[in-house]
Design brief:
Shape: globular
CATH topology: Cytochrome p450
Helix content: 40-55%
Oligomer: single chain
Strand order of the largest sheet: 1-2-8-5-3
Number of helices: 17
Largest sheet: 5 strands, mixed
């Protein structure tokens, strides 16, 4: 059975995931203590079945993990109806499609700002890092501006986020656990201070709106507001950074597809972004817990047992996608589940799509001769799959 900690598997999980799909049903995985749903049909069912809950298991001792625990237990991602319904309804009053579309000029401005910096870097060094100089700062700057974080503090956000999300990988080290606790405490305290300030002096930012939003007499508690802001940053930029980086590296390594894209940038942007998310998924595993006995793909999942939707595997399922292991930047239709499905479909998906659909053509119009300058360096993680460093020249 495959091991999520095996460096060879992490480097390229797709051949072993294909073997897992051939078994034709979810299988028990001893290493993680859960069933794995590798086929599209099964993974999709895991995401949509109401008898499978996203149930957060608090870490103990609870006093030590208090902040980390509430950042998850009080978030949309780790709650189920009726709490999930209430939280999502309140958050969507402030973070809705209209609000996201209004961010377009800001995203375009930040994109151009980053591209100007890159031009300066190219003149000095001849190369730049696609991740650190472009894919990573863009969504962080967008969400920071959306939440009303002071620009001088933006540098704090990505390290906090990266420390917290390392806990989603199998078997984090004691050092990573300590870093996650510290980041959770600092991040929550920071958002709380902004929340208190905005309650006294409201602005036009999302924290101000979340602090006053109300539905049928319900409001967000302090913990729920803080957890929502932390989730928006953590989930809201991980998908964008990794989806953009993974997809662009794949495209740069495929001469035929790269040529098609660069000769029709604006016409292919929309399908290219979806194929980026399908071909090398930024999130590979999303776990659920059975609240009552449920059958997935002919396998009985008993109450309390966990089953994970393997999103990256599902997006390579040959029964759903023609030439599933081939990159096709004009693929349509493309019913990938990179953003999840059902009630846990990512609320930040429209923002992530908008960021990528603006930043991809802007980059390629500015640097049409973009090419890899060195071998890209992957992050040594499976659940959140992405690159640490992608040096390119233009």
């Amino acid at each position: 059975m495959l091991s999520f900690a095996n460096p060879e598997f992490v480097a390229n999980p797709y051949p072993q995931l294909a073997e897992l799909r051939k078994l034709g049903k979810p299988v028990w995985h001893e290493e993680t203590g859960m069933f794995l749903a590798a086929r599209y049909k099964d993974a999709n069912a895991v995401l949509r079945n109401r008898s499978l809950g996203r149930i957060f298991s608090p870490r103990t001792p609870e006093t030590e993990w208090e902040t980390f625990n509430y950042l998850h237990a009080d978030s949309i991602l780790d709650s189920e109806p009726p709490k999930h319904t209430r939280l999502r309804s309140l958050v969507m009053k402030a973070f809705n499609p209209k609000r996201i579309e209004e961010l377009r000029p800001n995203i375009e401005r930040i994109t151009n700002q980053l591209l100007h910096r890159i031009e300066d870097k190219l003149q000095s060094y001849g190369t730049f890092d696609l991740i650190a100089d472009y894919a990573e700062p863009l969504p962080v700057m967008v969400i920071a501006e959306l939440l009303g974080f002071p620009e001088a503090d933006e540098h704090l956000l990505r390290p906090w986020s990266q420390a917290i999300v390392k806990m989603y990988e199998p078997s984090p080290t004691e050092e990573q656990k300590a870093d996650a606790r510290k980041a959770s405490n600092e991040f929550a305290a920071y958002v709380h201070s902004l929340m208190v300030e905005r309650q006294k002096n409201p602005g036009v930012d999302l924290i101000s709106e979340l602090a006053i939003v109300e539905e049928q007499g319900e409001k967000l508690s302090a913990h729920e507001l803080i957890a929502t802001c932390v989730l928006l940053l953590n989930a809201g930029h991980e998908a964008s950074v990794n989806g953009f980086g993974n997809g662009l590296v794949a495209a740069l390594g495929n001469e035929e597809q790269w040529s098609k894209l660069t000769s029709n940038i604006d016409g292919m942007t929309e399908t290219a972004v979806d194929e980026f998310l399908r071909f090398d998924a930024p999130l590979h595993l999303f776990e659920r817990t059975a609240t009552e006995e449920v059958e997935i793909g002919g396998v009985a999942i008993k109450p309390g047992q966990k089953i994970a939707a393997l999103l990256g595997s599902a997006n390579r399922d040959e029964e759903i996608f023609e030439r599933a292991d081939e990159l096709d930047l004009s693929r349509s239709p493309n019913p990938h589940i990179g953003f999840g499905a059902g009630i846990h479909f990512c609320i930040g998906a429209p923002l992530a799509r908008q960021e990528m659909q603006i930043s991809l053509p802007a980059l390629l119009h500015r640097f049409p001769r973009l090419e890899l300058a060195d071998k890209p360096i992957r992050r040594p993680t499976f659940v959140l799959r992405g690159y640490e460093k992608v040096m390119v020249r233009a």
